[in-house]
Structures are given as structure tokens and as C-alpha cells.
């Protein structure tokens, strides 16, 4: 993220606490646009409370699995999901306990704001292995700002963040500002390294810088590989 004076950062935090919105959920509609209209089994890595999992289930002809390392958030996801939905949640370490299906593969895999918490190349290799031939992997990730382009996008994202927060909260009752509790872990890899490693592990993948301190990665596994 662009380096800002502490006083401005505190002001932005107070504003965002009073006008909350989810930077990751902002990309959910975009994620769905990268996927086929219908697909079989799907997996969401780092599912949180399951918002994306429930969206994925609307297109799945089979089932959707949400995986998160936090048992408490997995319990919350289960509580927010209809028992009749073709959805399952499990608490597991992605790198060591990722469940597989009958053939260990999924037609769709999504991963939002998670891979910077993991060994990056190893995590991408694992997701590649679990993706069925012809399947689609979509990642929304965080990278450390390094280049002038990174800082320019970060600077532009600040007023854009305020505008989007105001629009999304327009007409809602005022929220009393509270201290931000769960801070996003800072990314250690710069965007250049993210791209190099991604293209090494996932040849032909498409990686793009995005607004609100995110990048996106889309890879479709060849039907023969």
C-alpha cells in the first residue's frame, strides 16, 4: 500500500470503520465473470464466512467446498448456509489438509486474499494439481508496492476507496466508528516476483494489477496436460 502520513491513515481508518465495505467481496462479481456459466465441483480456498462459496454454488451442478484454517469462521460459514445447499465447509491447513474429491480434482478453484499467507509457488503448484483438466483457477491476491506504477495505483485507490465506501453505504444507518481489529497481513512479494513465479508454475496464466491493493490471476488448465 502507498505510504501515507500516520494522521491520514488514522483518518482513513475512522472513515472506513464508519462506512465499512469488503475489498475482497468487491471482486466476487468479477470472479464469477471469469468462470463458465455451469461447472461441476468447485473449491474456495480461504473461504471465510462463505459468501463466495454460496455464489459459486449457484452455478455448480455438483457441490462446492469451502476451506479455511480458522475453525471459528468455518462454524460461522456453516451457520449462514442453508443445510439444503450443495455446500460443505471444512477447517484445514490448505498446504497439508486440503480435501479432494473422488478423483481429487475440482472444475473451479477460487482463492481470495490468501496466497500471500502461504509459500506462494508451492501453493500455486498445489492448486494446479487439484484443478481438473479444462478447469479454471482464479486468484485475487495482494502484492507489496514496489514500482512507480504500484504506488500510483495505491495513491489513486485512496480517494476511490472513499467514494466506493460512501456509495455502498448511502442510505444505510450511520455506523459508529470502531477501531479496526483484524488487519490484513502485509504481502512480502512484489508484483514483479508474483508474475514471474506464477508464470513459472502456471504457464499461460493471466496476471493483472487491480485497484484497491489487489492483483488478479486467471489460469485455465489445458484439457491435456
What do these coordinates show?
This protein has eight helices and seven strands. It is of the alpha/beta class. It has one domain: 3-Layer(aba) Sandwich (Rossmann fold). A seven-stranded mixed sheet has the order 3-2-1-4-5-7-6, with helices on both faces. Strand 2, helix 4 and strand 3 form a beta-alpha-beta unit. The chain starts with 5 loop residues before the first helix and ends in a 5-residue tail after the last strand. Keywords: Methyltransferase, S-adenosyl-L-methionine, Transferase. It comes from Streptomyces sp. SID12501. One of its GO terms (molecular function) is methyltransferase activity.
The fold-level CATH name is: Rossmann fold
Q: What is the residue-mean pLDDT, rounded to a whole number? A: 81
Query: Mind telling me the CATH superfamily name?
Result: Vaccinia Virus protein VP39
The counted number of beta strands is: 7
Total DSSP helices: 8
| Main sheet: strand order | 3-2-1-4-5-7-6
Anisotropy-based shape: globular
Count of domains: 1
Amino acid at each position: 500500500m502507498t505510504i501515507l502520513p500516520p494522521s491520514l491513515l488514522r483518518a482513513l481508518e475512522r472513515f472506513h470503520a464508519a462506512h465499512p465495505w469488503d475489498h475482497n467481496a468487491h471482486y466476487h462479481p468479477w470472479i464469477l465473470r471469469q468462470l463458465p456459466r455451469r461447472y461441476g465441483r468447485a473449491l474456495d480456498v480461504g473461504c471465510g464466512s462463505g459468501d463466495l462459496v454460496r455464489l459459486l454454488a449457484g452455478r455448480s451442478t455438483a457441490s462446492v467446498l469451502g476451506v479455511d484454517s480458522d475453525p471459528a469462521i468455518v462454524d460461522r460459514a456453516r451457520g449462514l448456509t442453508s443445510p439444503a445447499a450443495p455446500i460443505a465447509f471444512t477447517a484445514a491447513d490448505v498446504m497439508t489438509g486440503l480435501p479432494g474429491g473422488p478423483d481429487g480434482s475440482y472444475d473451479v478453484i477460487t482463492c481470495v486474499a490468501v496466497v500471500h499467507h502461504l509459500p506462494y509457488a508451492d501453493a500455486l503448484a498445489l492448486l494446479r494439481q487439484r484443478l481438473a483438466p479444462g478447469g479454471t483457477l482464479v486468484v485475487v491476491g495482494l502484492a507489496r508496492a514496489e514500482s512507480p506504477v504500484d504506488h500510483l495505483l495505491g495513491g489513486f485507490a485512496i480517494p476511490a476507496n472513499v467514494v466506493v465506501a460512501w456509495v455502498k453505504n448511502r442510505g444505510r444507518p450511520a455506523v459508529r466508528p470502531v477501531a479496526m481489529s483484524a488487519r490484513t497481513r502485509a504481502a512480502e512479494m512484489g508484483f514483479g516476483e508474483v508474475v514471474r513465479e506464477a508464470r513459472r508454475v502456471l504457464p499461460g496464466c493471466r496476471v493483472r494489477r487491480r485497484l484497491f491493493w489487489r492483483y488478479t490471476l486467471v489460469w485455465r488448465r489445458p484439457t491435456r496436460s
